[in-house]
Every structure is written in structure tokens, then in C-alpha cells.
Amino acid sequence: VKRTGAQIIWECLVREGISTVFGYPGGAILPAYDAMLDYPIRHVLVRHEQGATHMADGYARAGGGVGVAIATSGPGATNLVTGIATAQMDSSPMVCITGQVPSRLIGYDAFQETDITGITLPITKHNYLVTRVEDIMPAIREALYIAQAGRPGPVLVDITKDAQQASLDWQWDGGPIQLRKERSRHAPTAASLERAAELIRHARKPLILAGQGVQQSRAYAELSAFAELTDTPVALTLLGLGAFPASHPLNLGMMGMHGEAWVNHAIQEADLLLAFGMRFDDRVTGNTRTYAPQAKKIHIDIDPSELNKNVAADVGIVGDLRETLRDLLDVVGRCDHAPWIAYIRAMKGDTAVRDIQRMPDDGHLYAAHVIHDIWRATDGKALVVTDVGQHQMWEAQYYHHESPRSLITSGGLGTMGFGLPAAIGAKLARPDAEVWAIVGDGGFQMTQAELSTAAQEGVKVNVAIINNGYLGMVRQWQEFFYERRYAATPLRSPDFVKIAEAHGLAGFRVESRGQVLETVKQARENDGTVLIDFRVEQEDSVYPMVPAGADLHAMIRRPVSAIAETAADLI
Amino acid sequence: MNHTLVALVEDKPGVLNRVASLFRRRAFNIESLSVGRTAEPGVSRMTIVIDSDQTNAERVTAYLYKLVNVLQVDDLGAEPGIARDLALVKVAVSNGDRPALLRIVDETRAHIVDTSERTMTVEITGEPPHVDAVIGRLEPLGIVEMVRTGQVAMRRGDAARA
Questions:
Q1: Is B66's Cβ below 8 Å from some Cβ in A?
Q2: Is the pLDDT of residue A489 over 80?
Q3: What is the full DSSP assignment across B55-120?
């Protein structure tokens, strides 16, 4: 059948199961937009192309499939860059399709020409410049495959306008993707499994470090089975939260810079670390020279380049985590680590509860209160998307995630402005989920325009702004490390309630603890997107904190002297 | 210490850029890089020499493999079986120097490939240390211009890569 390049783009996307795309039209991508009207595609018109990438990213992370973002050439394409880098750092499967100037104009500095494949080369898993109509189908199909294969990531396909306009006698090829590169199937050797099993058998103080790889390989059942069989406590990275139920008796909570103190101490005292789908990021390890000094390390990751990158592994296994854990379950036996677990429990005490209890009851509202109450009101079952900063860490500390893919957050790149658009994407991937965007007053304003997208699309997300009038995390660093010299961190914001109302959405302001639950209830009952402006204590900090590059056990703790007990019935 | 890696890559636009970008991005230093065709259509071969005191060859290999267009990476280590480098050296030859230059060329199995009134151009082919040594002997005469191809290398014996 005769098809234009523009039509082939949609033929491929629809046949590969894509039903929703996020984008913004423009000259070089116009043929594709024109053809789109004839295909069963939901197009979400964003307000800025960065929003399209975060939505596609949130869509992918929430739904487990691939997210698609579309933009025109030049500025449309360059506006994708932050979202692509975000997806690359967090291994999120995304395909970006950009229009490019006609092939005869490439290299002539044509209007809205930019070398987007060159620009995105270091921040994509792979990218394509397509100048011929016959290359469109292979490029789109390969892009969708590569984005999801192995360790997922973003792929960009740049298609010239003339390739979109040209037509050819076209036939769908649904066969397996033929990459010239042989995708080596990594299977752990019997020897490496046995060496791992040996370390596990002899460990007295083992600890599992579970990361996002658990979610991406859907190894939840295997992780639980392994932890229970070997009686090994589980610590989670930020992106691992939800991979292992918060209420599981073996769950310790989050590790790292703002991890729980007992978790970081347990890591420093462990004699065996089992790193499952995590990459020993510097925010997780602190100073690598003093990190877990007594521990042997077993590292399982699907990406060979992660092994021995940040922390040397005694046993490194490349492979899909789920399959590898199944193999490992066959060769390890039941273990009992009751003394070790009791020791960690004693360290833990009631710290988390105590932290909230000890917030001074001086009429001020604390972020911990807000997040704790949202957790209570939603039974811990919401899909929470955060922005980046203090609120993000408080969310990780005070919202207890029970199920996989229930927290979506920009971990590796730490992209402010991620929260709202990613929440919109997440809601479209999982319409039945209750989606909360927990954001700061700074990050929210970076992509606030997407509120208009939510309103136009009729997407229901609950936006909780943790508003402390500062770029809070930077202010905290200034407080701790720059003698409270608050350079460029005090932030004056617009009236967020009026902003919501200007979009035809409901907005609330909450200034005291007593109003939180009632307002959360009202937000949940509202059919549309709701914005709540929580005016929280301005100079609160996230504790504990391991200063960047410091030893993991060298945590700054919440000062106790200034803390008074609150009434227990508020908990 | 120099360390040689051989990468077979797809012969597509931008592949050299991808490899070079990877080295820049990860702050790896390249001592030399040479690219050329192989016997297999559509496949190019890159010989990459790194300083293994500064750059970990295993890391380079692992990152190269992440590139979709990189088909295979072979780590030839510090002493690749067969290694060749080629240099063209233009040497100044004032009146008395000509016999000295001809003697060096004769002793080192180099070739004169061009000669003119004030200069002679020498081609040196061999293992990189040999090329270094010959250049060292030419230096006192006055090198006017020089170019080296960078090392290419292959394993000895029947093992074939493409």
C-alpha cells in the first residue's frame, strides 16, 4: 500500500501498541501531525516540550511500557534535552520523535535547524537521523526495541520533513528486530552463582541493597522470596522504594544521603552487601573509600558497565535480576540472622515516629505532617510523583510505599520541574490510580504551565505544593555549609490558589496541621486536578543528612534540644 | 603503559563521533585511534590505544559495548601480536646532512619517499617503538613536518575477527 513517511510513523507506533503521545507541533513535524488525525492516537498537547518528555517518562515509569514524546526541529528539539537526560539517568524507556529540516537544507543553518542527534548523543541510549522514507519503519521499530531492551533508556529519532512527505509502496514488517549487534544473553555461570552462594552461606551480617532494577525486571516476588529464605534485611535506594513493601518486617527503609540512620549504620557494619539492580550512586555511598569497609559485595546488574564502576564487587553477575534471583534461589539455603536483625531493630527504635512527634507544636505546619497525613488519607496506596528537593526526601521518608511503581521521582539527574508533568503522564498510563504530585514551590513553578495541559486534557492529579518560601534544599545546604548566607534562595511565589482558579481548577491553602486531612479529603473527592498550597515551616531541614562526599556513618542528625513533644493523637 | 583495544563497528554515519564522544564523556584519554575498512562489508575496524595507567581498559570495553553500533571489542592488552604504525617525516637537509640522513634510513629500513632542495621525506613503518626510535634519530637533523597514522594491530595465528 502507498504510505507517506508521516503515515508510516503512526502505522509503526500504533502497531507497536502506542496509544498516547505527548508533544508540540511545528513546521518540520507538521506532516506527521497532519497524518496523526487518521490514527487512533491520543495526543496530549503540552505547554513546553520539556513537559512532553517528563510526561512520556512518567507514563513509562507508571505503566511499565515506553513513553513517546514528539517535537519539531530546532527549539522544539532542544527543549527535549532536560527530559531526555532525566530519562537516561533513571533508565526510563522513552522514544522522542523530532522533525528535522528537509535533507537538502541540513548543514546550511536553515530556519529551525539544529543538530539534535549530535546534541543528544551523550544523553540517549541511541539515536537516529532519518533522511529517507524507507528508513523510517526500521528506525521507529528499533527505537522502541532499544528503549526497552536490557537496561532501558531514551532513544531519539530525528526525521527530515522530506522523508515524512515522501511516499513509497509500504508493507508492515512485524518480524523480530534485526540489529547487526548480537545481543548477548547474559546468563550467570554456575561458578559465579556458587561463589555468591558461598558468601551468602557464611555471612553473619548480610544486607540487601535493592534498586530500581527490581522494578524494571519485575523481580518483586523473587526479592521477597530471597530475603525471607536467607533472612536478610532489605534497604532500598530512592528509586527502589516500592520494590519491597514498606510494611515487610525485613524492610529497613531508604539508604544514602537522606536515608534512615539505622540503614546507613547497618551498611557500614554489614559483612555482606547484596546489590540488586542498584548502581552505588554517590548519593547512596557517600565516601566510597570508607563505604561498608567490612562487607563483601555481590553485585547483580543487567548493565555490565555498572559492575566495578563505583564499588568493586567480590562477585559480579551480569543478568536480568529476576532470572538471576531465581537461579540464586536454587543454590542458597535457609539462613537465620536473628541477632543481626535484632541489632538493627534496636538501632532503629522509634525514630521515624519520634521525628514527627517531636516537631514543635507551635502552630506551624511541617512538611512531615503533610506527607504523613497524605499517606494516612490514601492508605498508602497512592501513586506519588515528586519533584526534586526537600519535599522529595520527606516524601521518601514519610510516605510508606507498599507496591511497585508507586513512587516516581527524578533520582539520578535531580530534575526540578519533573513532578507535575510526570504526574500527568503517570495518570494517563494508570487512569485508575490515585495520583499525587508532591512538589516544592520552586520546582512547581518551573513547569507550572503544564497545569494548563492537565486542565485541557481533563486529567485528574492532586498537586500538593510543599511551600516553604525558599528553594529549600539549597537553603538547607547554605544553612549547613555556607553560614546561613541565603544567596538567591528566598522565593516569592504567586497566589497558587488563584493560579488554580485561573485554570478553572480548585485550589486550597492549608496553614495548620488541623486542616490537612480535611483538605486532602476534599481534593480526593474533586473530579478535576486540585492544587493545595501547604504553607509549611520555612527553615525546616531534611534529617539525617550525610554531607556530599562524607563517610556514610557521618550523618547530621536533627537537633534534639529545640524539639518538644507533640500530642501523640496527631500521629 | 599503552594498551590496545580493537573495536569492530558498523560503518554508519556518526559512529566515529559516538566512540569519540564516549571517550570525551567519560574522560578517557586516547593515545591513538585509527579507523579503516575490514574484509566484511559494512564493518569498520577501530584500533584504539589508551594509557592503561590513566584509563581502565575494562571500563572502556564495557562502555564501548553499550554503543549499539559497536559490534565487538577485543582487548589485545599491552602487547598486541602484530602492531604497526606508519610515520611520514619531512627532514631538513642542509648540505652536509644528506649522507647522515641516508645512513639512518639505510640502517633502520626506512624509505625516502620524497626529496627536494632543502628537505627529504622519510617513511617509517614498524612497531610503534621502532617508529619512535627512528624519529629520535632524525630529530637532531631537524624535523620540519611529521604525521603518524596511529597504531593498527591484529592477533597472531588463526584467530580471526572480521
A1: yes
A2: yes
A3: S-HHHHHHHHHHSTTEEEEEEEESS-SEEEEEEEEEEE--TTHHHHHHHHHHHTT-EEEEE-SSEE
Active-site annotation of A, residues:
49, 111-112, 161, 473
- The pLDDT tens digits of the residues spanning B22-78 come to 999 999 989 999 999 999 999 999 999 999 888 899 999 999 999 999 999 999 998
B107 CB-near residues (< 8 Å, 6+ apart): none
Phi, psi of B110 (to 5 degrees): -90, 175
Strands B111-115 and B119-126: antiparallel
Which A residues, 50 through 89, put their C-beta within 8 Å of a C-beta on chain B?
A: none
Complex ipTM, two decimals? 0.90
- For A10, the grid coordinates are 503512526
Pairing of strands A272-276, A296-301: parallel
The residues near B63 (Cβ < 8 Å, ≥ 6 apart) are: A305, B22, B26
pLDDT at B161: 66
A266 within 8 A of A252, measured Cβ to Cβ: yes
pLDDT in tens, A166-177: 999 999 998 998
A100 forms beta bridges with A160
- Cα distance between residue B152 and residue B146, in whole Å: 18
Q: B13 contacts in A (CB within 8 Å)?
A: 129
With vertex at residue A154, the alpha carbon angle to CA A151 and CA A157, rounded to the nearest 5 degrees, is 135
Residue A176, SS3?
coil
Contact criterion met (CB < 8 Å) for B65 and A122: no
Asked if B111 contacts B101 with a C-beta cutoff of 8 angstroms, the reply is no
Quote the cell numbers at residue B122.
622519510
Amino acid A178: pLDDT:
83
User: If you count them, how many residues does chain A have?
Assistant: 571
d(CA A316, CA A327): 14
Q: Is the peptide bond before A544 cis (omega within 30 degrees of 0)?
A: yes
User: How is residue A338 written as a grid cell?
Assistant: 536473628
Give the closest residue to B35 by CA, choosing from B124, B152, B156.
B152
Question: Is A118 touching B (CB cutoff 8 A)?
Answer: yes
CB contact under 8 A, A117 and B18: no
User: Beta strand pairing status for B70-77 and B2-10?
Assistant: antiparallel
CA distance A366 to A290: 34
> B58–A182: do the CB atoms touch at under 8 Å?
no
Distance CA A121, CA A412 (A): 18
Touching check for A308 and chain B: CB below 8 Å? yes
Is the pLDDT at A427 greater than 80? The verdict is yes
DSSP, collapsed to helix, strand or coil, labels residue A59 as: helix
Q: To 10 degrees, the CA torsion angle through A478, A484, A487, A491?
A: 90
SS3 A209: strand
pTM, 2 dp:
0.95
Nearby residues of A381 by Cβ (< 8 Å), 6 or more positions away: A402, A403, A406, A434
> Model confidence over A497-555: pLDDT tens digits?
999 999 999 999 999 999 999 999 999 999 999 999 999 999 999 999 999 999 999 99
**A122/chain B closest Cα distance in angstroms:** 7
Question: Does A182 lie at the interface with B, CB-CB under 8 angstroms?
Answer: yes
Beta-carbon contacts of residue A44 (< 8 Å; ≥ 6 apart): A20, A21, A22, A23, A52, A55, A424, A428, A453, A457
Q: Which residues of B touch A181 (CB under 8 A)?
A: 10, 68-71
Nearest to A256 by CA among A292, A287, A283: A283
The torsion angle over the Cα atoms of residues A267, A270, A271 and A275, rounded to 10 degrees, is -40
Residue with cell 563521533: B17
User: Is the CB of B10 less than 8 angstroms away from the CB of A180?
Assistant: yes
Q: Which residue of B has its CA nearest to A155?
A: B68
Give, as one character, the DSSP assignment of residue A350: T
DSSP A470: B
